[in-house]
Design a protein that fits this description.
mainly alpha; 112 residues; 0% strand; disordered N terminus
Length: 112
């Protein structure tokens, strides 16, 4: 049998993914940079002259942040049940419950 002399066309190259890596001098960021602490702190303006305004803002913001993962888990549980992944649904509900407990426990210690 004679070898195939036809050259198959080369498949097109996939598009090059953008280089999302940070430049070398920015690869080692601080935790404040990663968490965008400056943005979070500027989201705490004192809109009133009330002396305890800061004592209201600071505990309420983390409380809102803790609700996000708790609600995420709570909303995902029915999808797990629908996919017949009951153990996963139970873990999600348990995790949501623990997050709500953590939120209320922290609330108890951070409110004036």
């Amino acid at each position: 049998m004679q070898g195939c002399s036809a050259v198959l066309p080369r498949p097109p190259c996939p598009p090059k993914a953008p280089d999302n890596r940070l430049p070398l001098q920015r690869r080692h960021t601080s935790s404040g940079d990663h968490l965008q602490t400056d943005s979070l702190l500027t989201a705490q303006p004192l809109l009133t002259g009330a002396p305890d305004a800061m004592l209201f803002i600071v505990p309420h913001q983390p409380s809102e942040f803790w609700m996000r993962p708790a609600l995420h888990e709570l909303n995902a549980a029915p999808h797990s049940i629908a996919a017949d992944r009951v153990r996963e649904a139970f873990r999600r509900l348990a995790r949501s419950s623990r997050l709500w407990h953590l939120r209320t426990t922290l609330w108890r210690y951070t409110t004036p």
